[in-house]
Write a structure and sequence with these properties.
mainly alpha; binds protoporphyrin IX containing FE
């Protein structure tokens, strides 16, 4: 499931770039990347990390299949926004997404209650992320049935989803993933997660309602950007730049963090109408989501393909996926900056970066079959 969704995410990212280049509706390209690619993968990754954070067993039965239900919801949303499915498909996507997310949220909360000892503070970031997704879907549902609210509902939906759902699950996971990828502990990660959550939530709430209260925009940008800057400074103090930049997976995660800070700066500007907001969608995709997902998959896919103790096959696959990680990350950062500035040439750099991940992935998966040497 995890390997399938990892590969699907890469295909969905390529599809999103293709749709944007071919001139499809911008919302269709955005949902190919975010709702078809990222959303189910985030569910699957949470299914992997929640048992780790609560020191308990993995997901089974219905919960195990929920990422596929979210993929279905994402495909419905993509079809409707692209004009290939009738409008009611959008209502179907919202309903399916809300029900599946609530079921998943109840499972995560149950895991937290039954945890052996205190659950890791990262769990509360996942609960908050899923809460943002439910809210984002309910809000856009309200906007669809009550047109006067549509403008504000759309703005709340997109900020709750990008900064809230994706942002919270990403930063919550990065605190655990970065030390794992570097193979050395971060004794301050849990404290940072506990301290940062209220600031992050205040920033997301601010950005979600800033469509109606523009003065909140810069405040929200400082809060969300500040949390990411504090995380970057924390990593620098604990691990040092040389280690962070020395490995393809960690350099990619680092660049994703830098990308989010840049996007918060852009958020402050577009919130005050000093630059177009739409460019931030492509900027978020190329400058944050792509380095985040490729960096995380470079570390996680080898573990998912070869679970248990480290084997030479796992090390080999990680080597293949991380080899071009640093150049890929720089391509994504440059693509994000260009797209933010409204330069479509950024799409070519993003496509090159995705190809530099997809081809080694294909080679790695074909050469190193799952479970084998
Ligand atoms: C089942 C899931 C989803 C549904 C039904 C849905 C529905 C919608 C709708 C109806 C719009 C307004 C489109 C327009 O006015 O043209 C929208 C916009 C948007 N949504 Fe979603 N959405 C879903 C999931 C997501 C997710 C998971 C994300 C991000 C993580 C996301 C990010 C956005 C963004 C960035 C926009 C603005 C796109 C643009 O104008 O370019 N959505 N969504
Ligand atoms: C903390 C960061 C952010 C803040 C404070 C912020 C704030 C705002 C505000 C206040 C508006 C409303 C502007 C208006 O009245 O038309 C807006 C619009 C918008 N924002 Fe953000 N934003 C942030 C980050 C992002 C990110 C990361 C994305 C990318 C996914 C994004 C995408 C958009 C889009 C697409 C619009 C609507 C543009 C339009 O259709 O006219 N924002 N933002």
């Amino acid at each position: 499931m995890l390997i399938y969704l990892g590969c699907c995410a890469v295909l969905a990212f390529a599809l999103a770039i293709g749709l944007a280049v071919l001139g499809a509706a911008p919302a269709a390209a955005a949902h190919a990347a975010f709702a078809v690619g990222a959303m189910p993968l985030v569910f699957a990754a949470m299914g992997h990390f929640v048992p780790v954070l609560t020191r308990s067993g993995g997901a089974s039965g219905t919960v195990h299949r929920l990422p596929l239900v979210m993929q279905g919801a994402g495909l419905l949303a993509l079809g409707a926004l692209g004009g290939w499915l009738p409008g009611w498909a959008l209502h179907g996507a919202v309903s399916l997404g809300v029900v599946a997310t609530v079921v998943f949220l109840v499972w995560v909360l149950g895991k937290g209650r039954k945890a052996l000892g205190r659950p890791h503070p990262g769990l509360r970031w996942y609960v908050a992320a899923l809460g943002c997704l439910v809210l984002a879907l309910v809000v856009i549902g309200v906007g669809l049935v009550w047109p006067p609210a549509y403008r504000l509902a759309r703005l709340a939906h997109l900020h709750l989803n990008t900064l809230g759902f994706i942002g919270l699950s990403a930063i919550g996971t990065l605190h655990v993933l970065m030390p794992t990828a570097l193979g050395r502990p971060d004794p301050l990660a849990a404290t940072r997660l506990t301290r940062q959550l209220p600031w992050m939530l205040a920033g997301i709430a601010g950005a979600a309602v800033a469509g109606g209260l523009p003065w909140l925009g810069p405040v929200a940008a400082v809060l969300v950007g500040g949390v990411m800057v504090a995380t970057l400074v924390g990593w620098w103090r604990v691990h040092g730049w040389a280690r962070l930049c020395g490995d393809g997976a960690t350099a990619s995660l680092l660049v994703a963090g830098v990308g989010l800070v840049v996007l918060c700066g852009a958020g402050a500007l577009h919130g005050l109408a000093l630059m177009p907001g739409r460019a931030a969608v492509a900027g978020f995709f190329a400058g944050f989501l792509l380095p985040l997902v490729t960096g995380a998959l470079s570390q996680l896919l080898p573990v998912w393909c070869h679970p248990g103790p480290v084997t030479p096959a796992r090390t080999r696959l990680r080597g293949i996926l991380t080899r071009q990680g640093r150049i890929r990350a720089l391509l994504f950062l440059a693509a994000g900056l260009l797209l933010l500035a409204g330069q479509v040439s950024g799409a070519a750099l993003a496509a090159l970066g995705v190809a530099l991940f997809a081809l080694p992935l294909l080679r790695g998966l074909l050469k190193v079959p799952a479970g084998g040497e």
